[in-house]
């Protein structure tokens, strides 16, 4: 039982050391991820369209 109390005490101490992000940091990180994913998606869509057009031109 003593080990369990020690475990919970040390877990509580570690949680007090954690620095959670504020709303502005979360919003900034979300916006950064959204922009990067959008740019990469558009780039891949462009490459896919070019490859599709070139392949259909070769096949015809």
TrEMBL record:
Major site of localization recorded for this protein: membrane
Keyword Transmembrane helix appears in the UniProt entry: yes
Bilayer-spanning residue ranges: 29-51
GO terms assigned for molecular function: protein transmembrane transporter activity
InterPro entries in the record: SecE_bac, SecE_sf, Translocase_SecE/Sec61-g
Location in or out of the cell: Cell membrane; Membrane
UniProt entry tagged with the keyword Protein biosynthesis: no
Membrane topology: Single-pass membrane protein
Gene3D superfamilies reported for this sequence: Preprotein translocase secy subunit
UniProt keywords, alphabetically: Cell membrane, Membrane, Protein transport, Translocation, Transmembrane, Transmembrane helix, Transport
GO process terms (BP): intracellular protein transmembrane transport; protein secretion; protein targeting; protein transport by the Sec complex
Domain of life where this protein originates: Bacteria
Family: Belongs to the SecE/SEC61-gamma family.
Annotated function: Essential subunit of the Sec protein translocation channel SecYEG. Clamps together the 2 halves of SecY. May contact the channel plug during translocation.
Subunit structure: Component of the Sec protein translocase complex. Heterotrimer consisting of SecY, SecE and SecG subunits. The heterotrimers can form oligomers, although 1 heterotrimer is thought to be able to translocate proteins. Interacts with the ribosome. Interacts with SecDF, and other proteins may be involved. Interacts with SecA.
Record's protein name: Protein translocase subunit SecE
Organism: Halarcobacter anaerophilus
Higher taxonomy: Bacteria, Pseudomonadati, Campylobacterota, Epsilonproteobacteria, Campylobacterales
Recorded name of the encoding gene: secE
